[in-house]
């Protein structure tokens, strides 16, 4: 991260030469770094070399007006715009503010007031940029974006929540269907938080027998420590928490309230400090209503809830996840990751993924196994042994259209860099060129 120039930067847009010069003089005298342009049409160009903290623009100018500039800027830039007008008409001020202007100043302006408004706007913008940079840096340092794959808004929000929660000792309840990544998220919360060098102890409550459960959790006086004590100072992860027997629920709640655990057959409580993460694919409120899960424990565990969406509700993550698994496992199976065709994509999109990401991972694995024999497709990997080798004509046309669309989007997104587009599509550069010819795509027209 490069340290920011302490001087605030303003871009002045004003057609009147005398007025422009007096604004520049005023701002420079106030310690600002200033760039000025006589027309709003020049702003986009100016911003390429001048990182403005705020833009100060006249409203009425020949050609593009200050209001046009505002409409032009807002979709891609969050640089605040302060408008200045000789006409001082209220409707225009109202329209400017409604369209997202930071503020509106009438001419003749009062220099101190103008400077103060600009400073506020610039400070706010710097703070927001600083926060965004900090968040991005944190994400990079945590490595979370290389572990929790996906770029849908839901997954991005999830990564943000994990980064925030990892820093706190608060209990987290992770909810989501089977295979949505609950275990992965629990580990990430531990691994990127301050307890990462302390133990992470996972207990799958559905796998413990009701008879042995208490001894396993609380330990016995003459046996090894229970899981709770093993996790002392670190994280205890209770997976499938609704399967915890009622007597253990009551005792566990006491452990959390008292910060101490009493082993089976013992009478002396042993102090323990835990961060508790729990997970379930059940509807806990139903379990509470049916009396299977204690309400007081539910509230205790549910300080924060993270909801992991099923894969079928974030289909845009299918491709990046598949590529992730193929690349990861290609190393294990020692085969190059197979190319992903439009037929493969169609099969991925048509499937409902009841087993979520775990199911996709198995599909990737089956696909790689078939690739070792130089054969296979994703459709076959999803439902092995059920696929006709030939698609009907109508489906072939639909698939070709899908493929054309995918390729066009990849080329546009990578601004014509064919190696990058090919990589994003999971195919070789040569195959991409062949497909462009076969599908009759005009590459130049896409850019
Ligand atoms: N967003 C993701 N990015 C990368 N891998 C993921 C992602 N989500 C899940 N996985 C992987 O999918 C598999 C299943 O995830 P996980 O075991 O965490 O699911 P779960 O919700 O705990 O399932 P269950 O409820 O059955 O215990 C794991 O191999 C995990 O690493």
From TrEMBL:
<dbReference type="GO" id="GO:0000160">
    <property type="term" value="P:phosphorelay signal transduction system"/>
</dbReference>
<feature type="modified residue" description="4-aspartylphosphate">
    <location>
        <position position="58"/>
    </location>
</feature>
<dbReference type="Pfam" id="PF02954">
    <property type="entry name" value="HTH_8"/>
</dbReference>
<dbReference type="InterPro" id="IPR058031">
    <property type="entry name" value="AAA_lid_NorR"/>
</dbReference>
<dbReference type="GO" id="GO:0006355">
    <property type="term" value="P:regulation of DNA-templated transcription"/>
</dbReference>
<feature type="domain" description="Sigma-54 factor interaction">
    <location>
        <begin position="148"/>
        <end position="369"/>
    </location>
</feature>
<dbReference type="InterPro" id="IPR001789">
    <property type="entry name" value="Sig_transdc_resp-reg_receiver"/>
</dbReference>
<feature type="domain" description="Response regulatory">
    <location>
        <begin position="9"/>
        <end position="122"/>
    </location>
</feature>
<dbReference type="InterPro" id="IPR025662">
    <property type="entry name" value="Sigma_54_int_dom_ATP-bd_1"/>
</dbReference>
<dbReference type="InterPro" id="IPR011006">
    <property type="entry name" value="CheY-like_superfamily"/>
</dbReference>
<dbReference type="GO" id="GO:0005524">
    <property type="term" value="F:ATP binding"/>
</dbReference>
<dbReference type="Pfam" id="PF00072">
    <property type="entry name" value="Response_reg"/>
</dbReference>
<dbReference type="Pfam" id="PF00158">
    <property type="entry name" value="Sigma54_activat"/>
</dbReference>
<dbReference type="GO" id="GO:0043565">
    <property type="term" value="F:sequence-specific DNA binding"/>
</dbReference>
<dbReference type="InterPro" id="IPR002197">
    <property type="entry name" value="HTH_Fis"/>
</dbReference>
<dbReference type="InterPro" id="IPR027417">
    <property type="entry name" value="P-loop_NTPase"/>
</dbReference>
<keyword id="KW-0597">Phosphoprotein</keyword>
<keyword id="KW-0902">Two-component regulatory system</keyword>
<keyword id="KW-0805">Transcription regulation</keyword>
<dbReference type="InterPro" id="IPR002078">
    <property type="entry name" value="Sigma_54_int"/>
</dbReference>
<dbReference type="InterPro" id="IPR003593">
    <property type="entry name" value="AAA+_ATPase"/>
</dbReference>
<dbReference type="InterPro" id="IPR009057">
    <property type="entry name" value="Homeodomain-like_sf"/>
</dbReference>
<keyword id="KW-0547">Nucleotide-binding</keyword>
<dbReference type="Pfam" id="PF25601">
    <property type="entry name" value="AAA_lid_14"/>
</dbReference>
<keyword id="KW-0804">Transcription</keyword>
<keyword id="KW-0010">Activator</keyword>
<dbReference type="InterPro" id="IPR025943">
    <property type="entry name" value="Sigma_54_int_dom_ATP-bd_2"/>
</dbReference>
<protein>
    <submittedName>
        <fullName>Sigma-54-dependent Fis family transcriptional regulator</fullName>
    </submittedName>
</protein>
<keyword id="KW-0067">ATP-binding</keyword>
